[in-house]
Amino acid sequence: MTIRVVIVDDQGMVRSGFGVLLNAQPDIEVVGEAVDGEEGLRRVAVLRPDVVLMDVRMPVMDGLEATRRLLAGTADGAPKVLMLTTFDLDDYVYEALRAGASGFLLKDASATELADAVRIVAAGDALLSPSITRRLIAEFSRLGGPRAPSRKRLAELTERETEVLTLVARGLSNGEIAQALVVAEQTVKTHFGRILMKLDLRDRPQAIVYAYEVGLVRPGD
């Protein structure tokens, strides 16, 4: 199945360059472009892509606000958002993940990295590198205590699901969690899928944000 992509970036060279690289892939098609977040929202509404490559900094409406509006609520069929940055923007990591972004990609990524990133988020996984996870944890440390109003939804998780969520929040991959719990990796994936469903979360970044916001995990644990 072809992955449909919309590129939202105010730099024409980025849009055209990424478009050429992605259209060269047999399973990816760039179906539209936009020069800012406002136009991006309009294009996404019409074209209904699977993945949106969203620049962080743009005029009129930046990528953070566009992502918040695009992914507000839990509407079915919302595309995955992959944030584009020219360098690691610490100030934006937390807010972008909180808004529902599925990950980050540097604009100097190779053709292979770009295509792989699109495939990863289209499949429902998160593109969250260890360095981004560390920044996220550092941001929670700076902010202090839990920000969520309650822990009520945590009670819906089984003991094993709570274990899995804790390890996810500490930045472990599914394979590492499987080793730690002495279970199959597919079992971890099954548990994590149930966690997302029970907590009404979209993906791994949102699960990490949630775990820290409710205080299930704290920086330094």
Give a written overview of the molecule.
By secondary structure, this protein is α/β, with parallel strands linked by helices. The chain is built from ten helices and five strands. Helix 2 (37-47) runs parallel beside helix 3 (63-70) and helix 3 (63-70) runs parallel beside helix 4 (90-99). The longest helix is centred in the C-terminal third of the chain and has 15 residues, at 185-199.
Per-chain topology:
Elements: E1 3-8, H1 12-23, E2 28-34, H2 37-47, E3 51-55, H3 63-70, E4 80-85, H4 90-99, E5 103-106, H5 111-122, H6 130-143, H7 159-169, H8 174-181, H9 185-199, H10 204-213
Parallel strand pairs: 1-2, 1-3, 3-4, 4-5
CATH architecture of the largest domain: 3-Layer(aba) Sandwich
Element-level helix/strand string: EHEHEHEHEHHHHHH
- Fold-level CATH name of the largest domain: Rossmann fold
How many structural domains in the coordinates? 2
Beta-strand content: 5-15%
Q: Give a count of the beta strands, DSSP E runs of length 2 or more.
A: 5
How many individual helices?
A: 10
Shape: globular
Tell me, what is the CATH class of the largest domain? Alpha Beta
